[in-house]
Design a protein that fits this description.
- By secondary structure, this protein is α/β, with parallel strands linked by helices.
- The chain has two domains: 150 residues, Rossmann fold; 147 residues, Rossmann fold (3-Layer(aba) Sandwich), CATH 3.40.50.
- It has eleven helices and 19 strands.
């Protein structure tokens, strides 16, 4: 058998059948870089090593090898992690911010800067031409290049909006790193819908105007607003601005914890809208919901649900104007047995000095007066008018703004 014949072949015969090295050329390989032949001599390898020195550097991976006539041999690769750039404002980092402000917001801006050493207060020259139009100047404009910049605004009346919009549109064009607009009170928030054909929703108009602020080198403007009247107004803003909605309710909660009767507090909402707006932030308090019902030509405030008996009841809403609804709510709560009645609004607008309607409780009882009326400093003209008058107490947004600037 062939197998037996092969097995019986002598070693000499096998050696005779094996061609000697170099007797004839090896067949050519189809590989571009074939591996070295086992028969290659050490001297040939050394000679070939000088022909090509290959260095690969791909995304931080470096390999060094030698190529001879038959292939490429990669030695020990040196793998290094990719460098990750440090982001400003990241975890553990504080942004250095230049804070500009309108004249009305001077006091609040000073308080914000006092809260954080990384916030530097800057000034603007607010002048007017003889015809009444603004003559504005930003000192040292070239020195703010590459810096994080913020502007604290107050749109307290249509007359001051144009001059502030002029500054707001100009600051991002000064090659700054980022721009943040702090507008604590969004003044047209209550004009957010149309009830009759021809009504103009000025909330949309103002939102669109702010949506066209030029982008800075860092991207779109960040817009900080406290307790906007309706959360759906966020959809009025375009994609070129980033609205950040904050709340003054944490300030109220901290203040309520300091009261001697803090364990006897109940929260009242003057209508369903206020309840929807704030109940999640105050849900650990007993709640009372009021609503308005029409009786003939009058709208009467009634308690829809909840119990006011023996409680210190705090009425909560986002803003107050004439104060009529708050006063009616105060009276109905007192009639249902409230021991004390206080009020909180984030934005105290009080046109035509309507704050004068609210008197402090000097023993007359909750049906006639309020124990406390808390407002924030989002409306600086109101703050100036009521800061030394009971029952008003100012809860400053300074800490909240300083924190928002580091987002």
């Amino acid at each position: 058998m062939a197998t037996a014949a092969s097995a019986s072949a002598s070693p000499a015969a096998l050696r005779a059948k094996t061609p000697a090295p170099g007797a004839h050329p090896s067949p050519k390989s189809s590989l571009a870089f074939p591996w070295p032949s086992p028969g290659a001599s050490a001297s040939a390898s050394a000679a070939a090593s000088g022909r090509l020195h290959a260095s690969l550097h791909l995304g931080g991976v470096r390999g060094v090898g030698t190529a001879n006539g038959t292939g490429l041999h990669v030695l020990h690769p040196d793998v290094k992690p990719l460098a990750v750039p440090k982001m400003a404002g990241g975890a553990g980092a504080q942004k250095s911010i230049l804070l500009y402000h309108c004249e009305e917001m001077r006091d609040l801006a000073q308080q914000v800067a006092a809260r954080n050493d990384d916030i530097e207060l800057c000034t603007i020259s607010w002048r007017k031409f003889p015809d009444g139009f603004p003559d504005l100047f930003i000192p040292n404009a070239q020195n703010i290049r590459g810096r994080h910049v913020a502007f604290l605004a107050s749109f307290s009346s249509p007359g001051v909006i144009f001059e502030q919009i002029s500054i707001i549109y100009n600051l991002p064009k000064l090659f700054i790193a980022s721009f943040t607009l702090i507008l604590p009170f969004f003044p047209t928030g209550t004009s957010e819908r149309m009830e009759d054909e021809g009504d103009v929703a000025t909330a949309f108009t103002l939102a669109r105007s702010l949506s066209h602020i030029p982008i800075s080198r860092g991207g779109p403007t960040s817009l900080v607003i406290f307790d906007i009247h309706a959360l759906q107004e966020r959809f009025y803003f375009g994609d070129a601005i980033l609205p950040c909605f904050e709340s003054g309710i944490p300030l109220l909660k901290s203040r309520l914890q300091e009261l001697p009767d803090s364990d006897n507090i109940a929260i009242a909402f003057p209508d369903d809208g206020a309840w929807k707006r704030f109940y999640k932030q105050l849900q650990h308090f007993p709640m009372i919901i009021c609503n308005k019902v029409r009786e003939g030509d009058q709208r009467i405030v009634r308690i829809k649900e909840g119990d006011a008996r023996g409680r210190h009841v705090v009425i909560v809403d986002d803003l107050v104007q004439s104060g009529g609804t708050l006063i009616e709510c105060q009276k109905v709560l007192a009639a249902h047995g409230a021991a004390k009645v206080s009020a909180y609004v984030t934005h105290g607008i009080f046109p035509n000095k309507s704050w004068e309607k609210f008197k402090p409780d000097n023993g007359e009882g909750p049906e006639h007066a309020l124990s406390h009326f808390w407002i924030t400093d989002s409306c600086p003209l109101t703050v100036e008018a009521v800061k030394d008058r009971r029952p008003f107490e100012i809860l400053s947004l300074a800490d909240s703004i300083a924190s928002a600037l580091q987002i």
